[in-house]
Amino acid sequence: MQIATPYLMFLGDVPDRLAAKTAYGIVDWRPDWCVGQLRLPGCAADLGIPDLTLAQGVEKGARTLIVGVVNAGGVLPDHWVASIVAAMEAGLDVASGLHTRLGSVPAIAAAAERTGRRLHDVRHSDQRFDTGKGVKRSGLRLLTVGTDCSVGKKYTALALERGMRARGLDADFRATGQTGVFISGRGVAIDAVVADFISGAVEWISPAAAAGHWDLIEGQGSLFHPSFAGVSLGLLHGAQPDAFVICHEPTRTRMRGVQHPLPSIREVIDLTIGCGRLTNPGIRPVGIAVNTQALGEAEARAVLERLAAEHGLPATDPVRFGVETLVDRLVAEFPAAGAAPAGAAAAGAAGASA
């Protein structure tokens, strides 16, 4: 799937920042690809990039309209269809990470045929996957897991890729969600894979590798979330992680979208180890990544210090304070991984930005 850049980011009229997390992720990690945002009246999210009309976006060089939103069920609201049709008529391709296929909407399919523009459904893959086999494969793997959905699992894995490569380690981010695929240019949206093949799809994403190579696998959902635990469990078994980082947002009391209380970090550690031992008996936690965006700096540091002491693990906000302590722990726990061969880290970084 080759999606033409630059992008014009479409936010529709989403009610909050989390509902536009795909767009935020792309802007945070690929800002040079984003010429501006297109918002409908009532939109409560703002990417901090210029508000543009379709004509202005095309004038600035945009080639693809990105539907950069998420919602329960991954549906495309009917009142957004006119904007998507207008984008194609203005000369833009359209890419979406929603479950609803763009071409399944008659008006969008007709506009694509009429204008010759391309439709990209990033959440859907044409690849056929086997069922997971659970056979230990070479290489090292780290999985980000969460106390909830939308707590920073993708950002933590991407920050670790950057930090580990800077230290000379051989590491690659492996995308398992639509935003990660937009950012990395590869991967599979695991929540759109038929349940029987989830673990097999993750094995395909992260195949056997050199002994010292790290695959940093983006987590999804939470083992405790009643809506998404099935995806999280299949991902855990397919990833066969040697290490995992627990991701957490400290101001939440209930899980997003449901009434269930947030599990404790200890509960997440224990259940991840208990379930993960099925495909990797050596699984272990190596750190805690905390989204402290809602906290002042002093309060954030106090929370991190408390969690680190409570669990005996390094705790950091990967975006705010970096991942050095997590990388230090990985190097200490897995000394045989060593550093990448000369030039490998630089070559990997170039590949990730291609």
UniProtKB/TrEMBL annotation:
InterPro entries: DgcN-like, DgcN-like_C, DgcN-like_N, P-loop_NTPase. Residues 42-124 form the D-glutamate N-acetyltransferase-like N-terminal domain. Gene3D superfamilies: NAD(P)-binding Rossmann-like Domain (3.40.50.720), P-loop containing nucleotide triphosphate hydrolases (3.40.50.300). It comes from the Bacteria. Pfam families: DUF1611, DUF1611_N. Residues 132-327 form the D-glutamate N-acetyltransferase-like C-terminal domain. This is DUF1611 domain-containing protein. It comes from Methylobacterium crusticola.
